[in-house]
Design brief:
The protein has eight helices and ten strands. It has helices at about 35-45, 90-105, 125-135, 150-160, 180-190, 205-210, 220-225, 230-250, and strands at about 15, 20, 25-30, 50-55, 80-85, 110, 140-145, 165, 195, 215-220. Helix 6 links the parallel strand 9 and strand 10 (about 215-220).
Length: about 270
């Protein structure tokens, strides 16, 4: 008699955002690289299918005399996620999203972030809520950057955001997940995808986010700012995959004292 073993890897486990299935749970930014070649190589090494584009800082055809990001990251291969990086008011964020939709022929999936100040880059929640209200009514599918407050995260879900993206730590800080209990609470109360955004520094941070039950992780600086961005992109890919498998497998409970790996009960001597 043969026994068929079914592994976790063999079970379908797609990330679903706005009704679209993705195999990769790692989303990556496209800024801060040395050149377009490095952007392309690191993105490919990450295995990401969704890439963010800072509309205010990236050329996607606005300037025919400058390198076009879409030449190395074509829309036929990647889902483009325009973001409102650099916006400090709801008005600016809404304008930027509408510009992205115009430049990308009606594209409606966007990452909304409205920052509070230039030093911390923490989100301005009041302005973000205001922008969300306008953009949802305008037909946009919003993946929203927010703080790690479970009440606010739930509020954005109820407003119609297709994904909620709490920070792990300040943008670009590399500090890792500073408040895992809040992230876990957000995940437990959500019915839309929860993706950690900002603060990841290395692969173990990404793995921890996935072990907490997050649906994915978005990062840029952790990869682009590494000594070897392409190698770090590969490491992040593996960290995401390992963390997701560990979450699905179910970790053992933490205990104060030892529990023998090979118990003596039932032995023959």
């Amino acid at each position: 008699m043969s026994t068929v073993l079914q592994t976790v890897d063999s079970q379908p486990d797609p990330l679903i955002i706005a009704g679209v299935e993705y195999h990769s749970r790692l989303l990556v930014g496209t800024g801060k690289y040395r050149d377009m070649a490095e952007t392309k190589a690191a993105t490919e090494a990450s295995g990401a299918e969704i890439v963010t584009i800072a509309i205010r800082r990236s050329n996607i055809g606005q300037d025919p005399n400058e390198p076009n990001l879409l030449d190395v990251l074509p829309p036929e291969k990647y889902t483009l996620l325009p973001n409102t990086a650099g916006c400090y008011s709801a008005e600016d964020a809404v304008r930027t999203c509408r510009l992205a939709r115009e430049l990308l022929d009606g594209h409606d999936l966007v990452k909304l972030e409205v920052l509070g100040d230039e030093k911390t880059l923490f989100p301005d929640i009041i302005q973000t809520i205001e922008a969300t209200e306008i953009l949802v009514k305008d037909g946009f599918k919003i993946m929203v950057y927010t703080n790690d407050d479970p009440i606010i995260a739930k509020r954005f879900e109820e407003m119609g955001c297709v994904a909620v993206m709490p920070l792990a730590a300040p943008i670009g800080s590399g500090l890792g997940i500073r408040n895992p209990h809040n992230i876990m609470t957000i995940v437990e109360n959500a019915t839309v995808p929860i993706l950690v955004d900002a603060g990841v520094g290395t692969a173990s941070d990404a793995a921890l986010a996935m072990e907490l039950g997050c649906d994915g992780v978005l990062m840029n600086t952790a990869i682009a700012g590494a000594k070897d961005p392409v190698l770090m992109a590969s490491a992040m890919k593996k960290g995401i995959e390992a963390g997701r498998e560990a979450f699905r497998a179910g970790r053992i409970p933490r205990k104060r004292f030892a529990s023998a790996s090979s118990p003596i009960d039932g032995t023959f001597f």
